[in-house]
Every structure is written in C-alpha cells, then in structure tokens.
Amino acid sequence: MVVPRTLRLLRGARNTSPPLQVRCDFDKVGRAKSTASVGSIGDESKTLNAPSQHAQELPPHSLLPNKMLLRSLLVATISSRPWLLTPALKMLQSLVHPRLSFVDVDKNPLLRSILKRTFYNHFCAGENRDEVQSTISNIKDMGFKGVILTYAREIVVDATGPASKSGASVSDQSFKEESAKDQGIEDWKEGVLETVNMIGEGDILALKLTGAGESAMKALAANTPLPDQLMDALQQICTRAVDRNARIFIDAEQQSVQTGIDTVALDLMRKYNTNGTAVVFNTYQAYLKSTPNTVKAHLDIAEKEKFTLGIKLVRGAYINSEPRDLINDTKPETDNSYNFIAASIIRQRYGTIGGNSPFPSTELFLATHNRESALMADRLVKEQLAGGLQPPKIQYGQLLGMADGVSCKLLQIGNESTDKSRSVAPEVFKCLSWGSLGDCLSYLLRRAVENRDAVGRTKEEYLGLRRETFRRLRRGFM
Ligand SMILES: Cc1cc2nc3c(=O)[nH]c(=O)nc-3n(C[C@H](O)[C@H](O)[C@H](O)COP(=O)(O)OP(=O)(O)OC[C@H]3O[C@@H](n4cnc5c(N)ncnc54)[C@H](O)[C@@H]3O)c2cc1C
C-alpha cells in the first residue's frame, strides 16, 4: 500500500537554495523494517518479470560458486555473531598499526597466508594485475555487467586539521608551489593509471580524490583550484579511461572536502559528458540533509549547460565522523531521501524540474546494499516503460563480499526476464578494491565495522548463505 508523505528537508551545507519539499510516495519502502513492505516489493518484481517456476524455487545465493559460497559463509558467521566479531575487529585494528612483528602481515607469513585466503580474498580483488584480472573474470562469469575498480591505498582526511579550518585563506599559489614537487600525487597517479589498465569496456574506475595526498586535500577543503600537477594527472586518467570505453566515479567523502570534490566532478562532467552519455559520475550522499537540494542544483546546471549528469547515489559512509547535525536524524529519513532521489530521477520529475519543463540528460547508478531501494528502483523502471515512458539509464552496484543476496537477486531478475523485457534487465556491478594486503587492511577494517553496524542485513545474509549451503549439501555440492 502506498502512503503519501511530505518530507521537509532542511537547508544544509552543500547548497544555499531554499529547502526542497519532497513528496515521498513510497513511504513504506525503506522505512522501519516491515515484512509487508519487503514482501510487496518482491512480489511485484516477480509479477513484472514473470519468472519461470524453476527460477522461482532457486534462492539468490544459488548463483554463487561453491568456493565463494563457503568463504562467504565463514565471513558471515563471524560478522553475524558479536562474540566473534568483536575480537576479530580488535585483531584487525592491531594489524593496521602493528606494534609487534608477530602481528605484522609483512613479517609473519603464516598470518599473511591465513588473512589472504579468508578476509582478503573475500573482500578484495588481488595484489597484482593477474590476481585482479582473474577476480574480474570470475565476477563477469557470474553474470555481472562489469566491475567498479578502485586502488585501496589511501590517506585519512583529518577534518579538524588546518586545511579544513582555514578554508580559503590558504592561497592557490602555495598549493601550486607545494604540488610542483609532490610525490604523493605522482604515486597516486601511477596507482590509478595501473588500475585503469586493468579494467575493460563498460567497467568503471572509482577515484578517491583525497588519495592524491596532502596538497589535494588542502585544495579540496578550501574549494580552490587543484594543483596543476593533479589536474594533469586527472586529465591523463580520464583520457585513458575514455580510450578504454570505461567510466569514472568520483567518490564522495567527508563534508570538509566535499564542496571541492563537487566542483571538480562538475568540471569533469562538463568536459566529458557532452554526447548524451555519462562518462564521469559524481557521488551524492542521501544521509545529508542538504543532498536533495544539491541534486536539484546540479540538475539545473546540467540542463542549463547541456551536459549529462552522472549520479551515483549512496547513503553515505562517514556517519561516525561527520558533524551529526548535517545528517538526517534517523535511518528511515535517510532511506526516504535515498528512495525519493532515485524515484524522482527515474520518473524524470524532480521538484519543479521535469513535467512541463525539460528534464536534463541523466544517468543513475544506485550504489546500495539495501534490497528495498534496489527492488523499488527496478519496479519503477518497469512501470515507466509499461506506461510508454523512457527512464534514464540505471545500474546497480554492491561491494565485493557484501550483500551478495541483493546482487544475486538483481541478477536473477535479469536472468528471469522474458525476451521482451530483457532490454530492461537490471545491470549489476561489483565494486572491487585492489592493492597489497598491507594497503587493504584499513579497507577490511571498514567492511568489518559496516557489517557490525548493519546487524539486520548481516544476519539475513548469513541465513541466506546457510540455507544455500545446506541445499547444496543435500545435493552433494553438485
Ligand atoms: C558500490 C558502492 C560505492 C560506494 N561509494 C561510496 C562513496 O563514494 N562515498 C560514501 O560516502 N559511501 C559510499 N558507499 C557506502 C554507502 O554510502 C553506504 O555506507 C553503504 O552502502 C550502506 O548503505 P546502503 O545504501 O547499502 O543501505 P543500508 O545498509 O540500508 O543503510 C546504511 C546507511 O544508512 C545511513 N544511516 C544509518 N543509520 C542512520 C541514522 N541513525 N541516521 C541517518 N542515517 C543513517 C548511513 O548512511 C548508513 O551507511 C558506497 C557503497 C557501494 C555499495
């Protein structure tokens, strides 16, 4: 059942226009977990896709290869039990900053081997080109449309540091002088160019701009032009990605640097998104009160300047470190905001944009582990098509090792599509991080924390994996 609801979203940090009033007419979707809402979305998707009897019987996790299933079950068993996860988290923390050589993965081969075969292989793509390519082809063999690849080495943004406090008071000139001899930018560029060389047509490169180091971070925090060396690096990276028919995601980060990131992303979109498709995507975090307005402002700019707005929609990963007042007060508010933005783009009506006025060219990438948001979007796309309307290109993505139940459900919907609806089968991606075991430790720690914080989903994932393992055991793992 659909219940209209008005959300008054407050003015926030990224945008100074009056608050956008959004009507969220799928209130049940994504609000406090309700079995009825999950059921109704799933049922509608099934009806729309008319799956075969056989396909209906198979659970989503049936798409996982045996090895992946068993590794996932091991990780999910640990993640879904606080008495196992808490010591595992403590251990990971001590590995990130080892004080004894016994817990240093570069000095203890046994520890390294155990970690590599379990957590690392579950969440990460590989330490070198051969390992990464092998992971990519396994993912594509499962039916995924492609991969989003990112280089794991990163610096941690200090949101309380002088860069973010002093803001624009740091002059452009000083950035340029610093960057002339900036090894951080050079190392980042080499790593990212190596990453681009590993992806193929239709794949996506994910860029974390603060990964370029201190001078990049300062310029982003002050929202001043990036150092010339970094601009040249970005130019080379984008050109190489375009040559390989790949696309680029600019990741969203902390608010202290986000206005600067938005500026860079819009500039790249102006340059590369000019022929009706999106090569570059900016990331929008639905947990921010300001995001519905930010999206509206960027839609206006795209329409005025005639480029395609690439929208990668996430809920937001920095809730524990951001000023709390910038973020929606509750999870259901974030869910509503996420679903509102997604539905408005799919329906090509966003506040006063669309309807009688033209809607800008857009492409939407839903980066989410939330089953309800993903299935709602798929249902809306099909509704639009059934009504003779053309929604924008829409794709879905989940992190490697996370929410396989959601990824596989979307793949199943695609597999079950009739020939007529095959052209609208959901296109699903897995997001992979690559890098040495040492480089990926912080990334592994974040995944463990995310699993701890998403208790309900982690448990659901564990139960799905356990059911599938028993199903295969009964059939002798054939
Ligand atoms: C492919 C991919 C790319 C990503 N890229 C980025 C990126 O560039 N930048 C980035 O920031 N994140 C990124 N993320 C992470 C993302 O922002 C989320 O942290 C993560 O996906 C969990 O959200 P969810 O949509 O999967 O759903 P859920 O698990 O249903 O939602 C969890 C999220 O809800 C929000 N939330 C939780 N509690 C509250 C509360 N009390 N009040 C308000 N909001 C709350 C938080 O954002 C939390 O992460 C990416 C995720 C994926 C899958």
Automatic annotation (TrEMBL):
It is an enzyme of class 1 (oxidoreductase). SUPFAM superfamilies: FAD-linked oxidoreductase. The keyword Flavoprotein applies. Residues 165-459 form the Proline dehydrogenase domain. It holds the Pfam family Pro_dh. One of its GO terms (biological process) is L-proline catabolic process to L-glutamate. GO terms for molecular function: FAD binding; proline dehydrogenase activity. Residues 37-59, 162-182 are annotated as: Disordered. GO terms for cellular component: mitochondrion. Transmembrane segments: none annotated. Belongs to the proline oxidase family. This is Proline dehydrogenase.
